[in-house]
Amino acid sequence: MPRFDLTTLGEGQLRYCVPAGTRLEHARTFDVHVTGTEANVGCLLARLGWRAGWVSALPQNPLGRRVVNEYRLAGLDTSAVRWSEGRLATYYVEFAVPPRSTQVFFDRKNTCFTAMTVDDVDWDYLLDTRLLHLSGLSVPLSPGVAVIVQQALERARAAGIPVSFDVNYRERLWSPDQARAALAPLVKQVDVLFCGRGDAQRVFGCSGTPEDIVRGLAQWTDAGHIVTSLAADGLIGWDRAQFTHVPAREVVILDRIGAGDSMVGGVLHGWLKGDFVRGLRYGALTAAMALSVYGDQVYTSAPELDALLDSAWTDIRR
Q1: Nearest to 199 by CA among 223, 178, 171, 220
Q2: What's the pTM?
């Protein structure tokens, strides 16, 4: 029996943000949150009772310890983190309302994680799992990290370990052409593919109805399960036999960042239980839960998630 239900590999960060109405160039104070797209998925699954582990590199200083301490509180195993001299990745968020858009600025160059090589990864740890989760967001961070992601996928396939992959395109990290060239060989080999409607259009040229977009993605991958987020229109999943559309949950949006990771975690919660369709419903719910709280992570439990899945909303429970 594998040690973990899910392992993942990615960069831990601190997010500094200012509320709508405040510009970064005039900010005096920041709200600070621990984040990292792959670890967000791992933390949610750990809170839902799954055995989840995370591979990364962090600076041996208070900032690195801040990241690890928060992940440990979630139940995510961090024993394979590589501690080193260097810096922690950060990013900055300027929340806004129309006519301005919320802006995200990355500071992720020359960090402990981007300096990692394949020799720094505990491969026995990473591959001791039922499912390996990877993200396309890590690939453009450095040539070394790109090789690690490729190696992780190839080694998992050689060991017969299923791989889930979230495209997670970021236009401030690379162009659509660069992303397509690098990610196409990777997504071809995965078992569960997550790709938002916007990323499918920009990176892979898929267009049309939600079903058309998923069929277009299917030309790029051999994945047995494909999930496409449709933002306010919910999400659609395909198991190569049937499409399942799940509408978005009603929600008051407080913070958009992290909703995609929470959706992925919810879907994988169902996938690990052997119920992909229920996983899509979990994904719509966990995405809404992420939108309704500040920060990138969802704080919940398996009993609460199941209770909310079929319940009608009420403004207060006594």
Answers
A1: 171
A2: 0.95
CA distance linking residue 233 with residue 146, whole number of Å: 32
Judge whether 150 lies within some domain: yes
pLDDT score, position 253? 83
Residue 245: inside a domain: yes
Predicted confidence at residue 250, as pLDDT, reads 87
Question: What is the CA 39 to chain-centroid distance, rounded?
Answer: 7
- Identify the pLDDT of residue 312: 67
Neighbour count for residue 31 (Cβ, 10 Å): 14
Instruction: Specify the CATH number for the domain of residue 117.
Output: 3.40.1190.20
**Do the domain assignments include residue 317?**
no
**pLDDT digits over 153-167, tens only?**
999 999 999 999 999
316 lies in a domain?
no
- Report yes or no: 176 and 169 within 8 Å, Cβ to Cβ: yes
103 backbone dihedrals φ, ψ, rounded to 5°: -115, 140
Average pLDDT over residues 80-104: 93
Residue where the block lists tokens 């699954």: 45
* pLDDT the model gives residue 317: 57
Tell me which residue range forms the domain holding 64.
Answer: 4-309
pLDDT greater than 90 at residue 73: yes
CA separation for the pair 229, 262 (Å, rounded): 12
261 catalytic? Reply is yes
Exactly one of 77, 255, 261, 296 is catalytic; which is it?
261
The mean pLDDT value of the chain amounts to 95
Residue among 127, 146, 148, 125 at smallest CA distance from 137: 146
The residues near 311 (Cβ < 8 Å, ≥ 6 apart) are none
| pLDDT tops 70 at residue 47 | yes
At 296, which helix (H) or strand (E)?
Answer: none
Q: How far is CA 314 from the centre of its chain?
A: 29
Tokens matching residue 130: 């039922």
Measure Cα distances from 285 to 88, 167, 250, 288 in Å: 31, 21, 9, 5
Domain count, the chain: 1
Phi, psi of 53 (to 5 degrees): -130, 155
CB atoms within 10 A of CB 233: 13
